[in-house]
Write a sequence for this structure.
């Protein structure tokens, strides 16, 4: 029964943390955007607006669920569910810590330690297209349809460079297991720089980061819901909790994407210089967990800052960057990395 | 006595059969395309059940992430979504059922005649991905088919461009 | 097989979560539909014709090219995890593979199939 029970406990904990983080991420985003635009932001509900997220969620539950009469009811309801499932389930393979010992039992701090973890994430993110495309189609709204189409074309275009930019890491680690990839990022370059892949694969990191922005439909790549052109994009015809689920999915996939970036490029749960102190194994486990959390929060903050500082691309620019810059660049990065490994530099 | 794996097997079998039933008999072609998603997913589940992890992921990445998106685009391009008459006018019930029965019999025959080779599940097998073995085989034993695959893809690429851009003059960028 | 069970559980539990949230809202929220409310919002105007119109072939083109490139990328992964073992031979082998891919890529570019106008 341990085969089932242990993962379920982990899943529930992860889902709970993710849900809480999503609701506060929305608040953080609103606060940050407010400060960037010289406003105060939400400050009425609770001290510093801290209960704003709770109020938002409660409000969503008491809204009317409107399905337009021309919409395809079944697919209209199913699309947001797909989005949420894809956004959350990707977290299953991400190692958020090393082993931890609780009451004499050792637990791996990862839900599913599979040997093709990298590919599992890629495969699951490629399912994200469906939620958006089908919601756009089922709404029977021209703008929604266009938003859905744009987004699927955008997501599949950037998936290519995303997939190729990862290969540099696979070449170095010779493994697709995410725990292995994180474990390899311990140690130091020249004795003081942490051995993180961001320093070994800078170009791969940039390509991957940009592709992630495109995959999660965040500004500057948020063309699927470009308000000025497409009203609200693929979720124009959604209301109530269905809209809430899209919202949830957007932020949850942001968290997952950040966790993926941290795992691949920023050392995962590795906390540098920790071995110079005499901590007990349990404290080390906790510190590594918090190192992971801090890194993820840092990347999330970066996501938010970018959203409020960089204007949106035009659609032709977006496709050009994806196919004519990112794709050849990632292939070039792949060849150069392979060559450097071959002559024993990396 | 059914163990956990049997339950998983039957679960995926039901998913595959049920969704393919919808694919074939649904009146709405978007529903059909959508049901195909679950069929592909179930097949990926079978691959996982067989410890063919790389194959399962490839199934998801290529079929679900690529080909089905293309299918959906194609379906969404059409104007008639609901109540499409997919059946052709001629009903060849007898030959069709004969051929179906023949193929089913052949498959069952192969199933019973085949000498199934059971691989014992060892910890090494569970921990190592099949991707390593596949990659090694690609570059060593099956090197020619591997390179031919890239040529096939090249041909497909050229074909796609020619079909889509037939009427326009080539533009140099 | 065992390592994949948690992924499967994750899919099941998150689906359940999404459906519970939907059902909870549907039981809590008000239901006062009327004709205007149920009409398509679109952009606030009366929608003209159905939304299921034909769209540009380019989206289709992108999907076709994606599949082809995606298959090539899939071939990279098993090669990459073997790279240190295969050494120079594997490197040259993959250069040939990427070279053929690039011929196709430049053809596509030259023909302007990726041009958005």
């Amino acid at each position: 029964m341990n085969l089932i029970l242990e993962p379920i406990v982990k899943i529930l904990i992860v889902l709970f943390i993710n849900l809480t983080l999503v609701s506060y991420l929305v608040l953080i985003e609103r606060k940050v955007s407010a400060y960037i635009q010289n406003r105060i932001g939400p400050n009425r509900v609770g001290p510093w607006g801290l209960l704003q997220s709770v109020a938002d969620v409660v409000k969503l539950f008491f809204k009317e669920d409107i399905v337009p009469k021309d919409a395809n009811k079944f697919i209209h309801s199913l699309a947001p569910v797909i989005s949420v499932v894809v956004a959350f389930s990707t977290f299953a393979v991400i190692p958020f810590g090393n082993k931890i010992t609780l009451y004499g039992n050792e637990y791996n701090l990862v839900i599913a330690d599979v040997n093709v973890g990298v590919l599992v994430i890629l495969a699951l993110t490629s399912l994200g297209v469906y939620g958006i495309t089908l919601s756009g189609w089922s709404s029977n709204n021209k703008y929604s349809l266009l938003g859905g189409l744009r987004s699927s074309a955008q997501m599949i275009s950037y998936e290519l460079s995303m997939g190729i930019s990862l290969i540099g890491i696979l070449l170095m680690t010779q493994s697709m297991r995410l725990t292995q990839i994180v474990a390899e990022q311990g140690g130091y370059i020249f004795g003081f720089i942490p051995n993180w892949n961001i320093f070994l694969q800078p170009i791969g990191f940039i390509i991957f980061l940009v592709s992630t922005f495109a995959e999660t439909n965040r500004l500057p790549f948020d063309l699927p819901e470009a308000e000025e052109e497409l009203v609200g994009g693929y979720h124009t015809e959604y209301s109530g909790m269905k809209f809430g689920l899209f919202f949830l999915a957007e932020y949850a996939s942001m968290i997952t994407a950040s966790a993926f970036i941290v795992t691949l490029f920023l050392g995962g749960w590795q906390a540098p210089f920790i071995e110079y102190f005499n901590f007990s194994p349990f404290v080390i486990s906790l510190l590594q967990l918090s190192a992971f959390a801090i890194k993820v929060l840092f990347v999330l903050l970066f996501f938010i800052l970018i959203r409020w500082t960089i204007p949106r691309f035009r659609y032709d620019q977006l496709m050009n960057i994806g196919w004519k810059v990112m794709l050849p660049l990632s292939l070039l990065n792949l060849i150069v990395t392979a060559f450097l490994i071959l002559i024993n530099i990396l | 006595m059914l163990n956990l794996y049997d339950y998983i097997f039957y679960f995926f079998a039901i998913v595959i059969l049920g969704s393919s039933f919808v694919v074939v008999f649904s009146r709405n072609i978007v529903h059909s395309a959508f049901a195909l998603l679950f069929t592909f997913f179930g097949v990926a589940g079978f691959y996982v059940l067989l410890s063919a992890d790389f194959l399962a992921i490839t199934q998801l990445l290529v079929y679900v992430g690529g080909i089905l998106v293309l299918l959906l685009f194609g379906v969404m391009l059409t104007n008639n979504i609901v109540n499409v008459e997919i059946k052709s006018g001629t009903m060849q019930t007898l030959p069709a059922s004969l051929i179906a029965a023949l193929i089913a019999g052949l498959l069952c025959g192969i199933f019973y005649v085949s000498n199934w080779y059971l691989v014992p599940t060892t910890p090494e097998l569970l921990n190592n991905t099949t991707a390593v073995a596949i990659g090694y085989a690609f570059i060593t034993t099956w090197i020619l088919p591997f390179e031919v695959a890239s040529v096939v893809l090249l041909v497909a690429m050229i074909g796609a461009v020619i079909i889509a851009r037939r009427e326009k003059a080539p533009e140099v960028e | 097989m065992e390592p994949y069970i948690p992924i499967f559980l994750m899919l099941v539990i998150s689906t359940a979560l999404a459906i519970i949230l939907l059902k909870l809202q549907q039981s809590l929220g008000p239901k006062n539909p009327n004709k205007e409310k149920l009409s398509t919002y679109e952009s606030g105007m009366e929608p003209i014709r159905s939304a299921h119109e034909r769209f540009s072939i380019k989206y289709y083109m992108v999907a076709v090219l994606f599949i082809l490139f995606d298959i090539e990328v899939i071939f990279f992964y098993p090669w990459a995890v073997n790279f240190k073992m295969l050494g120079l031979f594997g490197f040259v082998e993959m250069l040939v593979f990427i070279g053929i891919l690039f011929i196709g890529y430049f053809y596509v570019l030259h023909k302007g199939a990726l041009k958005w106008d």
